[in-house]
Amino acid sequence: MKVLVVGNGGRxxxxxxxxxxxPQIQQVVCVPGNGGTATLEHCQNxxxxxxxxxxxxxxxxxxxxxxxxxxxxxxxxxxxxxxxxSQGLMVFGPVRAGAQIEASKAWAKALMQEAGIPTAExxxxxxxxxxxxxxxxxxxxxxxxADGLAAGKGVIVAGTLExxxxxxxxxxxxxxxxxxxxxxxEECLIGEEVSVLALTDGLTIRPLLPAQDHKRIGEGDTGENxxxxxxxxxxxxxxxxxxxxxxxxxxxxxIACLRSRGIDYRGVLYAGLMIAPDGDLKVLEFxxxxxxxxxxxxxxxxxxxxxxxxxxxxxxxxxxxxxxTWKQGAAATVxxxxxxxxxxxxxxxxxxxxxxxxxxxxxxxxAGTKLNQQQQVVTDGGRVLxxxxxxxxxxxxxxxxxxxxxxxxxxxxxxxxxIGHRVLK
Length: 425
Hints:
Blueprint: E1 2-7, H1 10-19, E2 27-32, H2 35-38, E3 43-45, H3 53-62, E4 65-70, H4 73-78, H5 80-86, E5 91-92, H6 96-103, H7 105-115, E6 122-125, H8 128-138, E7 142-146, E8 155-158, H9 161-172, E9 183-187, E10 192-200, E11 205-207, E12 212-213, E13 216-218, E14 222-225, E15 230-233, H10 240-260, E16 267-275, E17 281-287, H11 295-298, H12 306-314, E18 330-337, H13 354-359, E19 363-366, E20 369-371, E21 377-379, E22 383-391, H14 394-405, H15 421-424
Parallel strand pairs: 1-2, 1-4, 2-3, 4-5
Antiparallel strand pairs: 6-9, 7-8, 7-9, 10-11, 10-16, 12-15, 13-14, 15-18, 16-17, 18-22, 19-22, 20-21
């Protein structure tokens, strides 16, 4: 079986790596892929843009691709699944109508309210003056969000009125492009975040292991939001009792509401949750795809073959599948980022030490990398590499990941030294 994976990040490298562990998978083609997928055995990169639906379709039909797995949210929001399905291809990832659950925070908030899903109080605005008046009335702290897709960076937790007003201005003035046509302002929830990624065929929904991401650039969870600086799984805060509530109060209600709107949602439904100190849970956001870097700690622990689960979702027979099985232990990943990220950064820095890191029994998933003309791996993004380790417990997994990352070097490299600080306490 040949699979085409759409995307070029650490998540897509992890998907290709996991799929290729199955004897059923003959080859994976990544569009456009990165320096890691370029050097992965039985994997090749195809230099097409993620929005070149016609090019992908033609290649897949001419080369016997059985399944397309879509990694990033942007092509899903643009309708890649609708297009490829119209060409007769099997696609894992929701149709455009379903991808609105991530592509529009206002749309998702309305769906949560309709479905009775616990979430923060919020209001949606189309102009700055009304948004600022609302903030003054509500008080600080408060959360300001760009409505659309902003690569994980369109959420500002404002601790002062000035920060909130600056965030509103930045969004409406186009800092996040078309994501800033609307502003969503939410109450600021206090607690601990957890990511629950679930697989669904539109009828049945099954959660994967809960994970915890570290979104802030600075240690102690300080500084700007990023796409994620590290993660671990399974997150202990998501107890079996809590996961049972997530299943009934969040996941099943969301899928039922989507179905009531005539949306056949097949793929990943990712719920970003806030767990309050008293155990109360609320949904911060939904995403329509595998999380990054959560995927890089969830898939290494997955025992059930990934393609079996994906095919069951696409063919709407997930309810017939046996329970998902998992390896024992814990996984942790640490992100090596370019200097300056999440702001401006330089590309093209030569990376050394990958083989040495992998000799320390870690898996290095490439994110923002490519091969240059000399076939050297060089930086090509803000988040560059994910160093992932599995251990019998969190202490072992985290220590192993940090042992591995110390072998890596490129100019300006930055990583947080405190990934997993909550579980290590």
